[in-house]
Amino acid sequence: MMFGDNLGIFRAVDIVKNTTADEFKTVLMGCLSPEEHGRFTIDKLHLAPYPIDDCGTQVAVFKFSPAIPSFLKKVAAGEKKHIRDQEGNLIEIDANFWGLTQLNHPKEEILLDIVAISGPMNHAYGAWSGVESNGSVQMWLQDFLPEVPDLGSRCRIMIYGYSTEADDLGTYVAGFLEELFKARRKLHQQTRPLVLVGHSHGGIIVAEAFVKASWEKRYKLIHLSTVQIFSFGVPYKGINPDQIDIVKSSHGAAYFGRIFQETQYITQNLEFFRHLLKYTDTQLSSFYETQQTLKLGKLDIARENSPIESYGMVVDKNSAVLGLPENLEEDHNVDGDHISLIQFTSRTDRTYTTIIGLLQRLLGTELRNKVLTRKSS
């Protein structure tokens, strides 16, 4: 799967709160051309509250089969599409998933917020998705985790997407924190325990956000509410830009040049991040890849200009694990490369079951009391 691939998944926002899945499916099917009727089906559709408007509207994640219908072709290329429901209300569709997207609709009291952010050029949704042999897309944060008894129904699960056009890490961090702040601005949300999940450069954004929120008054409660961080292939101690596939990005070389500089920056400030984890007793679960990642190099003229394939370890264990005391950090090896280490197609996947076990253990503790104790100290 390519870094930026959305796997044919689209997002719709501004859906009226009481709209059912069947009603929205009818709206989508009504957008098909006469030639497409009878040939296309919707094989994936999830509705959830939109996290930043007091639950006044819903967000939908959906996928058509066997291909992308004509009315979504330009959306797949990066444009937005506007359609209307049966009452004439405007709905916006995109494929970028920028900002926060809520993935589930908890049926019980929400005890935990989980927010995941992927690495550079990883699609905000597609990065966490595995593809089955029959082509079905399984996104474990949406398809598996919400179904776990006594866990999924008590967690609000969100992903965060961002453009890679910014010039510095601070811009990404500021955007991430502001969206989190808006999604948690109600009084009962402000001290809700928070789990941050970061992959690759997304984990660098998480680390910097954790640090920035510790001293910026507006975001202080985000810092105090963070009870656990999951990091997947996060280059805490630097990254080798030669091991990254830069060919798949239209602005890859320049962007990864900035990424390399920013990872050096977080490396220089690593001790402060370590200190804050220890001071707040925030748990860190570090997952590292054990397989090399495919990258594309120069064109091979002898093979009709096809890319030369090679493999390399993007983030090794030494860089992905901070080396904190055992009571603060657990490290886990993953049977995957830098891309697949966050993609699971089975509920029995070894890494997935480890994550579930850690979350269940976390939910069994007095989380909110821990947050309130931090706040009062």
Averaged pLDDT: 88
What is the end-to-end distance?
Answer: 47 Å
**CATH class label of the largest domain:** Alpha Beta
Any idea what the CATH architecture of the largest domain is? 3-Layer(aba) Sandwich
What's the β-strand tally?
16
* Count of discrete alpha- or pi-helical segments spanning 4 or more residues: 12
Oligomerization state of this entry?
single chain
Query: Sheet with the most strands?
Result: 7 strands, mixed
Q: Give the helix proportion (percent range).
A: 25-40%
Question: Layout of helices and strands, plus pairs?
Answer:
Blueprint: E1 9-16, H1 21-29, E2 41-49, E3 57-65, H2 73-76, E4 81-84, E5 90-94, E6 99-102, E7 112-117, E8 129-131, E9 137-139, H3 140-143, E10 155-161, H4 169-183, H5 187-190, E11 194-199, H6 201-215, H7 220-225, E12 226-232, H8 252-268, H9 270-280, E13 283-289, E14 293-300, E15 306-312, H10 317-320, E16 329-334, H11 350-363, H12 367-376
Parallel strand pairs: 7-10, 7-11, 11-12, 12-13, 13-16
Antiparallel strand pairs: 1-3, 1-5, 2-3, 4-5, 6-10, 8-9, 14-15
Helix pairs in contact: 4-6
Task: Outline the structure in words.
With 377 residues, the protein is α/β, with parallel strands linked by helices. Helix content is 30%, strand content 26%. The protein folds into 2 domains: 9-94, 2-Layer Sandwich (Alpha-Beta Plaits); 99-376, Alpha/Beta hydrolase fold, catalytic domain (Rossmann fold), CATH 3.40.50.1820. The protein has helices at 21-29, 73-76, 140-143, 169-183, 187-190, 201-215, 220-225, 252-268, 270-280, 317-320, 350-363, 367-376; strands at 9-16, 41-49, 57-65, 81-84, 90-94, 99-102, 112-117, 129-131, 137-139, 155-161, 194-199, 226-232, 283-289, 293-300, 306-312, 329-334. A 7-stranded mixed sheet has the order 6-10-7-11-12-13-16, sandwiched between helices. A 5-stranded antiparallel sheet has the order 2-3-1-5-4. The protein has a two-stranded antiparallel ribbon with strand order 8-9. Strand 2 (41-49) and strand 3 (57-65) form a beta hairpin. The longest helix has 17 residues, at 252-268. The protein is globular. Residues 245-251 have low confidence and may be disordered. It is found in: Endoplasmic reticulum; Membrane; Mitochondrion.
